[in-house]
Hints:
Order of helices and strands: EHEHHEHHEEHEEHHHHHHHHEEHHHHHH
Distance between the termini: 26 Å
Low-confidence stretches: none
CATH class of the largest domain: Mainly Alpha
Mean pLDDT: 93
Helix content: 40-55%
CATH superfamily of the largest domain: Fumarase/aspartase (Central domain)
Structural class: mainly alpha
Number of domains: 2
Strand order of the largest sheet: 4-6-7
Amino acid sequence: MATLSISNRSFRFADFEPLLDSPRKVSLSPSARKSIRDSHKTLSEIIASQKAVYGVNTGFGKLSDISIPPGEQKQLQLNLVRSHAAGVGEPFDLGITRIAMVLKVMTMAKGYSGVRLDVPEQLLFFLNHDILPLMPRQGSVGASGDLAPLAHMALALIGEGEVHFQDRILPSMVALKEAGRDPLELHAKEGISLVNGTQVSTALGLKALIEADRIIKSADIAGALSVEASLSSKEVFAARIHRLKKHGGQKTSALNVINLLKGSSIVESHMDCGTIQDPYSFRCIPHIHGASRELYNATVKIIENEANSVSDNPLIFPNGDAVSSGHFHAEAVAQALDALAISMSEIGAISERRIHHFMKGIGDDIPPFITLSPGVESGFMMAHVTAAALASENKLLAHPASVDSITTSGGQEDIVSMAPWAGRKCLRILKNVAQILAIECLVSGTVTAVFHTKKNPGIGSAKALTFLKKHATLKAKDRPLQKDMESVAKIILNGSLLKTVNSTVTLQ
Length: 508
């Protein structure tokens, strides 16, 4: 895999996808290296002038009015990292850690942090040897940066704390010795630059974008399978209908369903069935999936903007100004992820309603709960209950994190974003939605496989059904369903179902 070169160019969320599953070589471009050196030179000149600079020759937060003499400024940075490593809970996934570290290098590469080149180079060494700090996932309120988790990251760079290295959890100093690397010694401003920033919140956001992209397109696959299996109308997805609305996401979803069902003799078989209207969860797929698409697209823009921004404090400008601002505040990320959480929760909600529609039975064609012996067998009764439980859980998780705030740092940090929680619960929603969609695919796939055997599915739905059969059993027979449900959720979340269908029908 090609090396990820960090420069001043902007990155898209897909650029970070390989980091979720495995290490990737990362480097700094020559221009980025120059920007870092120039910024450090400027900071050195500011320090020599004895100008007061927050967190460099002053204390932190409520203690910012205390002056720190030159002989104690290195200790100040070391103390900051140690004292702020106060996170709790399970560590973040390795992929989140990799992305957060890359984002930290990216912000330093912009040339406004004032750190020595040694700092990003230590991060690069860790990344390129896949030495990953253990960063507890609880403890950040998403303002003044993701202080606690980033302090745990910084702790590993200086040879303290713990890391994941070569499938082991071990002290950072042990990993450094095995890799032949010295710990980083922190100089002026380097501790605060490492712990300040939105990199953890943004890493959560980037993972959410990657998974949501797969889910929102897979939702159209699941919806098309259900439209076909339930003998619902395809006509409501016609382009001439959706041209009347100005929502691009709606048009995209309608087009995806039409293309997936192209050539379906199952759909053609009931063109004159006399049914006037299908339930909302079927004929309003474009409207609901489309609305979620619109919010997803808006979230992409916000999260990518944050990933490509400077997120540090104070900022060191080339003219010698050292300016304290709030670029570490993750409100934009928090609101974006709250919106994404709501939109993805709705994808799960409509999917659960389509599953429910099958549970009642459909006319004389499909028996209740998709079973050949109703009463003796329960079919997918409890699978639907699981989908309902997950949909209900999502409704609570979708409550916005960004509307909450707790004052910290003795009142200095009086309004915070709660972005890390927005990100963590958004990822939980996405996992739940993938599972709900998996249940829908199993239900509709089984209906088609058992009750529509004499007719051909559409070109896209046929591709999906063939792939589903490789990962699950599509039979109307009572059996433990957990493994099939989890297997299908996995191929939705890892994108393999989407990739397979895209080889026949390109979903937008």
